[in-house]
């Protein structure tokens, strides 16, 4: 009987915390112009990227990163589309944004980030998750459609809407354990991105 090899992803996806601020800045500054424009829905200057990255980790919502050999190579954000009822609950509608460095695409990072963001959204009280992108962003459109998002084209932009199921007690417990583990990784290996990039 042949033994099948266990396939382990070459990256780790975890929540980002304030200790990751430098890794987030370095990541955004490394993005090529096309990827940066796709992520921000238009051209953004280096000063604009620096300003965004400086506040991103502390803004309402959550961020997740995909790390390869200690370097942040993909990033997903979940941001509320309205006032948040509490510190732990987002508004019922939220928006997700993703980007993966060009050299690290086609490895499942985008799909892993999307799945992690959708799971987090569900456990933060989000019912309708939206993904906006430029209409020419084929990879993002395919990823949204693969996860069941209904796509609506609006000129040069496309909105993907995904209705999320309510969390269960077990899924809430699991999410709490996952976030505690993510925090432990973040504080155990601070600023590895600068050393590894």
Automatic annotation (TrEMBL):
Domain of life: Bacteria
PROSITE patterns given in the database record: GNAT
GO MF annotation list: acyltransferase activity, transferring groups other than amino-acyl groups
SUPFAM superfamilies recorded: Acyl-CoA N-acyltransferases (Nat) (SSF55729)
Positions of the N-acetyltransferase domain: 11-169
InterPro entries (UniProt xref): Acyl_CoA_acyltransferase, GNAT_dom
Protein's UniProt name: N-acetyltransferase domain-containing protein
Organism of origin: Methylobacterium tardum
């Amino acid at each position: 009987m042949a033994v099948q090899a266990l396939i382990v992803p070459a990256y780790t996806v975890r929540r980002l915390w304030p200790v990751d601020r430098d890794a987030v800045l370095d990541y955004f500054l490394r993005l090529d112009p096309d990827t940066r424009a796709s992520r921000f829905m238009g051209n953004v200057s280096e000063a604009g990227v620096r300003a965004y990255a400086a506040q991103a980790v502390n803004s309402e919502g959550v961020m997740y990163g995909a790390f390869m050999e200690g370097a942040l190579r993909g990033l997903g954000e979940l941001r509320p589309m309205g006032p948040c009822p509490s510190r732990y609950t987002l508004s019922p509608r939220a928006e997700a944004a993703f980007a993966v460095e060009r050299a690290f695409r086609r490895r499942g990072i985008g799909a892993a980030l999307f799945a992690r963001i959708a799971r987090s959204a569900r456990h933060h009280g989000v019912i309708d998750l939206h993904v906006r992108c430029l209409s020419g962003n084929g990879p993002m459109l395919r990823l949204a459609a693969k996860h069941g998002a209904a796509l609506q084209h609006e000129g040069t932009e496309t909105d993907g809407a995904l209705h999320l199921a309510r969390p269960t007690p077990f899924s809430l417990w699991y999410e709490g354990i996952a976030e505690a583990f993510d925090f432990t990784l973040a504080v155990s290996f601070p600023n590895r991105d600068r050393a590894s990039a």
